[in-house]
Specification:
homodimer; 410 residues; Carbamate kinase; VC0802-like; 2 domains; 4-stranded antiparallel β-sheet; 20 strands
Amino acid sequence: MTRLVLKFGGTSVADTDHIENAAAKVAAEVERGHQVAVVISAMGGVTNDLIEYCRKVSPLHDAREYDAVVASGENVTSGLLALALQKRGISARSWQGWQVPIVCTDMHGKARILSIDTTEMDGRLEEGEVAVLAGFQGITSRNRITTLGRGGSDTTAVALAAALSAERCDIYTDVEGVYTADPRIVPQARKLGKVSYEEMLELASLGAKVLQTRSVEMAMKKNVPVQVLSSFDSPIGSDLPGTLVTREEDIVEQEIVNGITYTKDEAKITLIGVPDIPGVAAKIFGPLAEASVNVDMIVQSRSQDKKSVNMTFTVVNSDLQRAVEALKKCDELKKTEIRPDEDVVKVSVVGIGMRSHAGVAQTMFQTLADKGINIQVISTSEIKVSVLVAAEYTELAVRSLHTAYGLESE
Amino acid sequence: MTRLVLKFGGTSVADTDHIENAAAKVAAEVERGHQVAVVISAMGGVTNDLIEYCRKVSPLHDAREYDAVVASGENVTSGLLALALQKRGISARSWQGWQVPIVCTDMHGKARILSIDTTEMDGRLEEGEVAVLAGFQGITSRNRITTLGRGGSDTTAVALAAALSAERCDIYTDVEGVYTADPRIVPQARKLGKVSYEEMLELASLGAKVLQTRSVEMAMKKNVPVQVLSSFDSPIGSDLPGTLVTREEDIVEQEIVNGITYTKDEAKITLIGVPDIPGVAAKIFGPLAEASVNVDMIVQSRSQDKKSVNMTFTVVNSDLQRAVEALKKCDELKKTEIRPDEDVVKVSVVGIGMRSHAGVAQTMFQTLADKGINIQVISTSEIKVSVLVAAEYTELAVRSLHTAYGLESE
């Protein structure tokens, strides 16, 4: 008896027709003899409407009340999917976070799951009842409702799969899986059959909006295989129609490079003429940390006059204004020119096989150079190389790299 | 320190502007030094949308899942009102049924409240925090969500007022109070200052859609004074701008007649030629009871041939078809003509002073006779007289009676 957790996102339950479609997917797994728990998001757009209500009523809102309001969309869809399953003759019931309960930290709006008590659900799954859990929500130890942040239903699904010792967590979404590149930019992009947790983390945090980063971290930590697949096109019957995110050791043929990603969510700040004195970096980055600005890529270079240095780093776009203001208050930067630049893109090459292969970065630099694309900043990790380039080169860079690493063909 | 429960219906919280308006009403009571608990409905129309979703997904739905879905609208408005109060600097928090908890019977869709644990809420009210409770919902002893039926928020409000030993329960709605007649039919109708529970029960169940009948029953049983008032027009500051529903003994000047009501929710069935044998009434009404048809007014008369009787009675409109089918199956009625008629209206005269005054019914019959309105069936209770007349006379009957009992002037 295999136990599965299926998760349906907002576009997969956008209206009652879509909910019927989701019920058909669940029914197919039940008919194969599996025990099935489902995690469900609110109807597409509903959570945004609820957030907008909160903003209208009170821009500076109490996060506990905000959570009570925005968590309600999942209560609707969980009940409706249970009804749709019952209509098909399948025993099913809905669960809200407090009914399980799913106990979370009291960081309202971005809580973390502390525990899931599956005692009752376990027994009901054994009896063949499908559990339909409202995603995204939980309760604090003080019985207040809390939410996990945008995309939190992915995290609920993976956490539930771990708590239920499920064999796999299937994330139904509006794409067919994880691709070697964004298919809107690279039409020849190929769906990956398998990808490791580590790669998926890089792909997720680098802009592939397929899975919430935290859910991948949790899947890796708890060792839950996660399949990303389409609610709409996946042929029922084929064994693993989507992309399986799993342990590195479970992937037999490891590609050197598995994907090219890009994110426009970065902005660059260049400081021209930073005094070349010991400890100046701490004086700069201290205030940024205090202003809750996360700094990503950093590069330092000697300026032409040799008496000072230039420094370039990136921050997320939404932090740019705050970062610039914090820097302007720095005594050490009084004579320094601060140049913000939002017209940049971070392009990354990701692949677990890089660990054992040299020359991956070199291929990247050469490819971009051949196309006349200037690299502004570079950063690397064990399994990825990222470069910052002018935003206008986004498509050219991604397509050239996709070809350079031979990702089109199997 | 006076403790009040305020209830806002769906039209009073239809959007965020209306919610701000409700917050202003609550704030006014807080500023007067009162401890305030609020009970709130879903935004106007939302519950209907949720019911429609359930119908679409599964016409024959599991009432437990239906309840989980339709109860969610109140979670949104309770959180939003708490936010709107906080913005005004008023300490407030939302409560959902399970958080109190409000424990109900497991008759899903029409549950009754068994207990309200106010231990925590009591303490918070003492500290000056406003409680905003989601109306209409509760939980069963098995932790499933349940609802109290349409208009159930009124019942939640009265039950909470009783549990909190509140001085009064104010029901904010879209009318200014209880009127001597429907103002759409009788423009001279007068708002009543006070009305007894018993009269309100008759008025409520006879078609004045101001308060849910069950909430009035509960108010009477628990002795909770209930004020019906407008969310929109009530002048803040005036002491009791609406209609107070209270104990008979608290009403000094009792009017003989307090209101003229009508309901078109009745249908008449006439049986021509019922065999005049002992026990035939039981043979007729037994099958109706088995078919869950409630019979209201009954009149029996000898037919012209003197060998059989004719029988006329009323049922609620929605039961008419079922009633006729049940009657057709009766062996005793094989030769009886069954005449259903939906074009009828029940007009009633209600007043607690009737108990000690004769001639009230006579005035009614004479007034209708003077206008040439034929009375088809009559029924009476201690404090009301009802007649069934052809629906086309609705306005004429109500207006004539309103004048006949001198209800226009104080």
